[in-house]
Amino acid sequence: MPVKKVGEKYRCEVCGNEVVVTKVGGGTLVCCRQDMVLIEEPA
């Protein structure tokens, strides 16, 4: 899933790492060789 907005929160389903987007640069976030999952969108 491509990053779309500042403030989105993503989690790795393998190791549990979480990332909050501070700058949108395009592309997808990857951890443990798989795409991270969007868990929260900014309000």
Give the CATH architecture.
Single Sheet
> What share of the residues does DSSP label as strand, in percent?
25-35%
Report, as a whole number of angstroms, the end-to-end distance.
19 Å
The mean pLDDT is: 93
> What composes the largest sheet?
3 strands, antiparallel
Please, how many domains? Answer: 1
As laid out across the biggest beta sheet, the strand order is 2-1-5
CATH names the topology as: Rubrerythrin, domain 2
Shape: globular
Number of helices: 0
Features:
mainly beta; globular; 43 residues; Rubrerythrin, domain 2
Describe the structure in brief.
With 43 residues, the chain is an all-beta fold. The protein has no helices and five strands. The protein has a single domain, classed as Rubrerythrin, domain 2 (Single Sheet), CATH 2.20.28.
